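Morning run. Coffee first, then this:
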Amino acid sequence: MRKNEPARWQHDHSFGQDQRRPGERKTVVVIVITATMMFVEIAAGIVFGSMALLADGLHMASHAVALGINAYAYVYARRHAHDASFSFGTGKVNTLGGFTGAVLLAGFALLMASESIQRLVVPVAIAFDRAILVAVVGLLVNGLSMLILKHRHDDGSDHHHDDHDHDHDHDHGGSHEQGGGHDHNLVSAYLHVLADALTSVLAIVALLAAKYFGLVFMDPLMGIVGAILVARWSLGLLRATSAVLLDRSASPEVCAEVRERIEAVDGNRVVDLHIWCIGLNLYSMLLTVVASEPRPPEHYKALLPADLNIVHATVEVHRSGESG
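And here it is:
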C-alpha cells in the first residue's frame, strides 16, 4: 500500500457548517434593533418615571439575551466546523441553540401566566394612554424584526453538491446535497419575536377594551391567552429539537424508501437500518445488507435517494448463509 493511499478514504466532516448562514445575519440585525429599543425604553422609563416603559424595556432585554444565544450558536458552529472532536460536524449546535431558545420561551410563558393570574387576583391601576403607546411601539419594532427573520423551509441552506468516488466501507453517499430544512436556531429567534408581537397585540386589544368599556379584567386575561399560545409554540420547538439532539430515527417513510430502494435490486435484504439527523437537513446512515451475491458498498450507496441528503453512510454487506 502506498504511503498516501489512506487519503483516498479520508474526507471532511464539516458538511458545509463552516459557511455563514443567512439566519446568522438576520439574527444579528434583530439583536441590534431589540437592544436599541430596550435601551430607549429603559432610559425613558427611568427619566419619566414610567413603570410600564421600564418593565417593557426589561422584558425586551430578556429576549435580547435569548437572541444573543441564537447568534452565538451560529458563530460557534461555524468556527468549530472543522473540529475533529465533533464526530459528525457541528450541525447539532444549531439545534441546541433552538432547544435553548425554546426553554427560555417556555420560561417566558410561565412568567406571563404568573403575572396575569396575580393581576386577576389583585388588579393594579393602569396608565392606559402610556401603556397603549408602549404596546404600539413594541408591535412596530417586533413587526420589523419578524419581517427580517421571516423564515422559509429552505432558508439558511445553501445547496451544494460534492461528489466523491471512494472504494471503502465507511463513506459519504455518492451525491452530497445539503438541502433545505428547518433551521431550529432561526425558528427559535423568530418565535421569540413573534411572542413579543403577540403580547403587544393582545395588550392593545385588552387596554382598549379596559379604557373604553371598563373591562379591566381583559388585560390579565389576554396575558393568560398569550401565555398559552407561547407555551404551545415552545413545546412544538422542544419536540422538534429534542428529537434531533437525541438521535431519533428519521421518519418511517424515509426509512421505508431506503429499504425499498435497496431490496428492489439483486434480491438484497436489509437486516439493519438506522437513519438520523446530524444537522440542518443532513442525515447519517448505518446499513446492513444480506445478499446472495454481495456487491461493493458503493453499489448500495448509489441506490440511495439523492434528495434524502444522506451525507454520511456506513454500509455493511454479508453473503447469504454467513454467520453474523
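The first strand starts at residue 87 and ends at 90. Good start to the day.
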